[in-house]
Every structure is written in structure tokens, then in C-alpha cells.
Amino acid sequence: MSAVPPLVALTGGLGAGKSTALAALERLGAAVISTDDVVHDLYRSEPVVKAVSARSCRAVAPSGVISREAVAARVFADPREREWLEQLLWPLVRERISAWREATIAASLESPLVSPPSALVVEVPLLFESGGEGLYDASITILADDALRRARARARGHQDVSARERRQLTQEQKAARSTFVVVNDGTIEELESKLSELLVMLARG
Questions:
Q1: How far apart are the first and last CA of the chain?
Q2: What is the C-alpha to C-alpha distance for residues 163 and 12, in angstroms, rounded to an integer?
Q3: What is the predicted pLDDT for the residue at 158?
Q4: Which of 23, 95, 144, 184 suits 62 as a labelling partner, its CA being 20 to 30 A distant?
């Protein structure tokens, strides 16, 4: 019976290149998922829509769609609103990740002719801030130069970068708590090469 691939959290500061690293890991044979995508999906679920609407009807359009911009404005302006939203979403996100892990492992066991994933990698921007690091076998922090990170973040439409960063640990603090650290200071090919070496180390245990 094949060994169960490790469950690995991928994190890093805003604009460090987490999504680029996640895509590279998928190309290298890992099964991947992003908690941002999970949250997007949860924002379309009836229980979350009802809870957010009851909390702030302005955050939900008449069509029943949650406005991420309206929610973000509330949580960045009021720590109590952010805490409420995190308490609503984080347990649901963890349930989704657990279900994804089980389904991915089951699918690999049912298809003996298909190679199992080298790792199960979950992109978790707020891994340590949410207290979720204990759920994973290992963690990876992606590091990048501060000026480069902020330029990338602004290019993606994140205007108030400083406000977003204030609710997170610094990337140095994230790195200090991670199992592995990968510096994203070159090309995508160079990043992929570093991640390939890391997957080999994970496979060795």
C-alpha cells in the first residue's frame, strides 16, 4: 500500500508569490488547493450568505451574492467584525480541507495505475494567525523582497497594502515558524527548481 502523501501548508506575506508557488507545486506532481478559493466558494453557500446578511445586509446584494469588497471594508475597519468573520469561516474552511484531503487520498488509492500525489499542499495565507499550523505535517513560507511584494500586491489591485499587512505576522515571523523557507527572488523556473528539491526532502520524511 502506498504511503499517504504529507499534508503541507503553504504560506507567506502578501505578494510573496504563494499562488505562483502553488501552481509550480502542482506541475511538480502535488495535489493543491487554496483556502482563498475555498472561501470564495463558501461565500456562495446558503449558511454563510444568511449569516453575513444577518450581520450586515449591505454586504449582500439583492441577488443573494456577498460583496467581498463590502465585507473587506467592514473587517479592516473593525477588529470585532474581523474576529466574527474568522470565527464563522475558519472552521468551515478546515472542514472543506479535511474533506478534500480524504477525497484526494481515496481517489489515488482507487486508481493504482495513477501515481499518487507527491504531497497535498494547501495555500493558507493566514496559517499561523489562524492557529492552524498543527493540522499539517509541514509548512512552507515563501519569502520575497518587501518592495517587490508590495509592487506585486498593488498590481493585483490591493491598494491598502499596509492595512492588510498589519493583520498578519511579518514574513520573517512566518518563516521562523515554518518547517521550510523558500526565497522567491528569481525566475519562475528557479522557484520551481527550489520547490522540486523540497518535495524530494518531504518524500524522504
A1: 17
A2: 16
A3: 64
A4: 95
Band (pLDDT 50/70/90 cuts) for residue 1 is: very low
DSSP-assigned letters across all residues of the chain: -PPPPPEEEEEESTTSSHHHHHHHHHHTT-EEEEHHHHHHHHTTSHHHHHHHHHH-GGGB-TTS-B-HHHHHHHHHH-HHHHHHHHHHHHHHHHHHHHHHHHHHHHHHHH-TTSPPPS-EEEE-TTTTTTT-GGGSSEEEEEE--HHHHHHHHHHTT---HHHHHHTS--HHHHHHHSSEEEE--S-HHHHHHHHHHHHHHHHH-
**Taking the CA atoms of the chain, what radius of gyration do you get in angstroms?**
18
Q: Cell digits for 164? A: 492588510
Phi-psi region of 123 (alpha: psi -120 to 50; beta: other; left: phi over 0): beta
Spatial neighbors of 99 by CB under 8 A, at least 6 apart, are none
Q: Which three cell numbers stand for residue 132?
A: 492552524
Prediction pTM value: 0.90
